[in-house]
Amino acid sequence: AETLSKINEASELASRQTLIDAIDFNNWKKLKEELKSNSEDTTVKTSIKKIQDSVQIELDIINKLYDKSDMIFIVDSDGDVISKNLDGILDGKNFLNKILIQSALKGRNGEDVFKILGKVYKVVAVPIRNDQNFIIGAYCSANIVDSEMAKDDAGKLYEETVDASSTNRFYFAF
Q: What is the C-alpha separation between 54 and 23, in angstroms, rounded?
């Protein structure tokens, strides 16, 4: 139930018009292509930075008011990080090799655990769609998996197995 709640919350935040506008998907894609052909073009780099900064501002607002996760980041349709809340620590990173991100970019919501910069995170990823319902990226909300989170999750799994009727027991493992 908690995972579903987190996914629903992320879906709602991913559909915020101010976030979609900040991403400026068509311009973002065009600028990325231009940068590939001329990696020294400072005008293109400045334009990309402007989009990243706009998205970061939106993520900072979301993080402060709605999503209290340790890390929130946006990836484009190629899996490249556009921006992350608070800082640019994920600039240049690509998460297309993560099944969760691939799924989100195909329109499926999900949750998974994986390493980011050497730390283990529990990540929720949902697609971001533009006004034409085209998937332009993924909204990712991540929390560091520490011993307290592991204890809480294990406790919830235990409660679910104890609450099940004796004739219909469910067992969970991870």
A: 8
Per-residue CA distances from 120 to 43, 64, 143, 150 (Å):
37, 22, 8, 11
DSSP letter for 85, please: S
- For strands 135-144 and 119-129, give the pairing: antiparallel
- pLDDT score of 170 more than 50: no
pLDDT in tens, 118-163: 999 999 999 999 999 999 999 999 999 986 655 565 555 444 444 4
Residues ≥6 apart with Cβ < 8 Å to 9 = 66, 67
Distance of CA 150 to the CA centre of its chain: 21
Q: What is the DSSP letter of 166?
A: T
Burial 149-161 (b: 16+ CB within 10 A, else e): eeeebeeeeeeee
> Mean of the pLDDT values across residues 82-104?
89
Does residue 136 contact residue 5 with C-beta atoms inside 8 Å? no
* Structural tokens at position 93: 């990173």
The whole-angstrom separation of Cα 105 and Cα 108 is: 7
Closest CA to 84 of 113, 109, 117: 117
CA distances from 166 to 141, 162, 171 (A): 37, 9, 12
